[in-house]
Design a protein that fits this description.
Blueprint (H helix, E strand, L loop, with lengths): L29 E6 L22 H9 L4 E6 L1 H4 L9 H16 L3 E6 L4 E2 L2 E2 L7 H15 L5 E4 L9 H17 L6 E4 L18 H5 L10 E5 L18 H16 L2 E6 L6 H16 L4 E9 L19 H10 L6
Parallel strand pairs: 1-2, 1-10, 2-3, 3-6, 6-7, 7-8, 8-9, 9-10
Antiparallel strand pairs: 4-5
Length: about 350
């Protein structure tokens, strides 16, 4: 979600947590939620854990696993984990991240590591003189080295890059992807686009090349590239309002991106999407999830935005506050539970 509003096809597998052969009738491999909190208070760096920001707790993890989820996207702040560019990862923060990852993967779930930074480090854009692309690659090389032995950890390169041309972001993403593979890591890597990585705008360039044009030739030595898109359903697709344009808006806005994935032999992951509780929104949510299931030859899965203990009355939240599931959660459960999921 945008800043202050609060992510026959294939015959090879990336070891363990990897891309698998899929047909349109096969279940999506990854289904789950964003467990937000560790990225909160980005203006307070490093901030104080459990006061300014919070990592997921075991109770919340258990709640979603018990309802059929098998994937958690875990947002955090790059600056907290690496206090200065090029430095080693900060020990106390890494230990907090380790604790969350260990519990989630210990329960059999996958974890998407998500530096929730919008292609920025202390406000400076990746690819700039202050934060060259090599800085992000250095960060990912260190993080991949730390987690490469855990096949259930997925590397999400960056949350919602924006404010930089698609070609500049491609260069940064390619450098980070290469740095990860140079460590020997075989983990799944999710590559977003720029312009907030919206599925609806993937093929639309504004004053430059589109994500579709800039990223279609990106390659991964271990197999197909997995691209992460986000898609909200409100009037401007920003995820800042709890209305939905129509019952079909979600499925409609995924179609062009889905076609691009299929044409270029890539795979897709919907890292963020969220809706309010109106009947139109709940129907739109269900239809969008069904659309991805119907196109599982190119879609790997999804993580809903959002859950986490500090959301309060946030209208998209599926964080439980009582014994009854939130209305959105009931739709997610319907599309998450599948005994044939690998």
């Amino acid at each position: 979600m945008r800043a202050n509003c609060k992510q026959l096809f294939i015959a090879t597998m990336l070891a363990g947590a990897s891309v698998m052969t899929s047909a349109a009738s096969d279940p999506l491999r990854y289904v789950g939620v964003n467990l937000a909190g560790a990225e909160f208070q980005g203006s307070r760096i490093p901030g104080k854990a459990n006061t300014d920001y919070v990592y997921p707790n075991k109770k919340d993890v258990d709640y979603f696993i018990d309802r059929g989820m098998n994937t958690f996207r875990l947002p955090f702040r790059w600056e907290r984990l690496q206090r200065n560019l090029g430095w080693d990862l900060e020990g106390d923060e890494l230990a907090r991240l380790d604790d969350a990852v260990a519990y989630m993967t210990g329960r059999g779930a996958y974890v998407v590591l998500d530096p929730h930074n919008y292609a920025r480090y202390f406000g400076k854009v990746v690819g700039s003189k202050e934060v060259p692309s090599s800085a992000l690659a250095d960060f990912w090389g260190k993080l991949a080295t730390h987690y490469k032995s855990n096949e259930k950890v997925i590397f999400g390169l960056m949350n919602e890059p924006h404010g930089l041309p698609a070609d500049d972001w491609r260069n940064a993403a390619e450098a980070s992807l290469n740095a990860i593979r140079a460590t020997g890591a075989q983990n799944v890597v999710l590559v977003p686009g720029t312009a907030w990585t919206g599925a609806h705008s993937w093929l639309a360039g504004k004053g430059g090349r589109s994500n579709g044009d800039a990223l279609k030739s990106l390659s991964d030595p271990t197999g197909p590239v997995v691209f992460e898109a986000h898609q909200y359903l409100d009037d401007d697709f920003s995820g800042t309002k709890d209305n939905c344009q129509s019952e079909d808006i979600g499925a409609e806005k995924l179609k062009a991106f889905t076609g691009w994935l299929r044409e270029n032999k890539h795979r897709g992951f919907l890292g963020e999407f969220g809706v309010g509780r109106s009947p139109v929104c709940l129907e739109a949510l269900g239809r969008m999830l069904q659309y991805m299931s119907d196109n599982s030859d190119v879609w790997l899965g999804w993580t809903y935005w959002a859950a986490g203990p500090w959301w309060g009355n946030y209208p998209f939240s599926v964080q439980p506050t009582s014994e009854e599931d939130k209305p959105q959660m009931k739709v997610l459960i319907e599309h998450a539970k599948d005994p044939t999921r690998p």
